[in-house]
Amino acid sequence: MIKLIKSIPLSLLALGVMSDCARAEQQYDFALHGYLRSGILANSDGNRSDSLGLMPDGKWRLGNEEDTKIELLPQVTLTSDSGVVARVKANLTHQSKCTSDWNCLDDDGKSIQFREGFVELSNLDFAPDITFWGGKRYSSSNTSSHQFDWEYIQYNGTGGGFDGMDLGFAKLDAGIYAFSPTDETDAFPVDKNEQGYPDDYSLNVWLKKIAGTGFDLELIGHRMNRNENHPTAAQHGYGVTGVYNFDGFYGLTGGYSRVVFQYGRGLAAGDSLGKNGWGWANLNDTQSWRVVLDNLATVGDWEFATFAFYQKDKNYRWWSSDNDGWGRTSWVAGIRPYQQITRNFAMQYELGYEYLDDDNYKGVGGKGKGGLTKITVAPTLTFDSGFWTRPQLRFFATWAKWDKGVSDALDGTYNWDTNTISAGGYTRSGKTDTLNFGVQAEVWF
């Protein structure tokens, strides 16, 4: 935490002081929001353990996180005499296990990074209902599953656009993003100082609440210069996402529910389906399809978070020199029941299954195919009642078992010289199950 405090620039601290002085004039308002999770994950041998998961993105997170992540989100709001509102926002992130887009900018990937820094203008005289933005930010349409710890719609980058234009039959959001996955740049032989370094430029257009319903439609187009290390890679791509948001749990009970359909081709397929920046190795004819079910149901004193997706990839290629790519199938399904016992004590349980069929992971015996089952029990101390209440302190036990055919996909390390995957910590002993324990704090404010 000392490192975090020292890493906050003097200018940001001055901004907070300035907001205190300006508040008396009723023109400025300062707010600080944030997120924190931190804990320990250990196995029955008393050793620190890694998270478990087969998917390239996401994992059943309850009782399955070993890293520390801190986000601080300062915001200054300025209001003019005419009523125009300007919001200046930033996102300072520290993560001990750096896994996401531009967070990895130094050698160790663990210092404080500015993941957002942008300005919004709204209530302008010629467009009072539209919010314009410019800078480095997350899209306001990003959508994630808290249960699976995964944004299946994720557009981040530096650019500009607007949200909330009323077309009569729908609301329109549009923006252009330039994105450079700097941690991947460090991992592969690419000179980021070279002229024409291949940023991914994407145009993102959303139509929301079409015809007054819960239906949203997104259209995405990508453009990236071909890199010399991937001479057959795609330079273009397009994708579409359809989302239907239901009232409650499919209209049956309280909570929420949504169904998502996604398709991508070229740069918009594979690991870039529903997001930007990860398609450097995609082929022009790489194609991907995905269906997502993301829900929370309220039944009496219980709440049930459920999540599932199915994805099919054609001519998929994952950072390799394979000329044609290969087929890949993956799907997950899980449920997290939450019971509030008293106002400040709850029981959480999670059952999750992941399945992967990917020829790139040869696995034990050359299978590259199989599943992983994870079960977690987590007594939880709560600040207040409800699934979403935070802070929470969780004490958990997690048991997981996987098929031998996906041992190398579980937590293996890819060797680029030999095009092989070595077994990771869980599979080095030859076991196909583990019993883990730990404690975790999670806060957002």
Describe this structure in words.
The protein has 445 residues and is mainly β. It has one domain: Porin, LamB type (Maltoporin, Chain A), CATH 2.40.170.10. Helix content is 7%, strand content 51%. The chain is built from four helices and 22 strands. The chain has helices spanning 2-7, 10-22, 182-187, 407-411, and strands at residues 28-43, 69-79, 85-95, 113-122, 131-138, 143-145, 150-153, 156-166, 171-179, 200-208, 215-223, 236-247, 254-266, 287-299, 302-316, 326-342, 345-358, 369-382, 392-402, 413-415, 420-422, 433-444. The chain has an 18-stranded antiparallel β-barrel. β4 (113-122) and β5 (131-138) form a beta hairpin. The longest helix is centred in the N-terminal third of the chain and has 13 residues, at 10-22. It holds the Pfam family LamB. One of its GO terms (molecular function) is porin activity. It is found in: Cell outer membrane.
Q: What is the helix tally?
A: 4
Unreliable runs:
1-15, 183-190, 414-424
Shape field: globular
- Written as H for each helix and E for each strand, in order along the chain, the element string is HHEEEEEEEEEHEEEEEEEEEEHEEE
The count of DSSP E runs of length 2 or more, i.e. the number of strands, is 22
Question: What is the chains' assembly state?
Answer: single chain
> What's the Cα radius of gyration?
23 Å
Provide mean pLDDT, rounded.
84
Strand content: over 45%
Fraction of residues in helix: under 10%
Strand count, sense and closure of the main sheet? 18 strands, antiparallel, barrel
Distance between the termini: 17 Å
Please name the CATH topology. Maltoporin, Chain A
What is the top-level CATH class? Answer: Mainly Beta
Q: How many structural domains? A: 1
Structural category is: mainly beta
Q: Which CATH architecture is right?
A: Beta Barrel
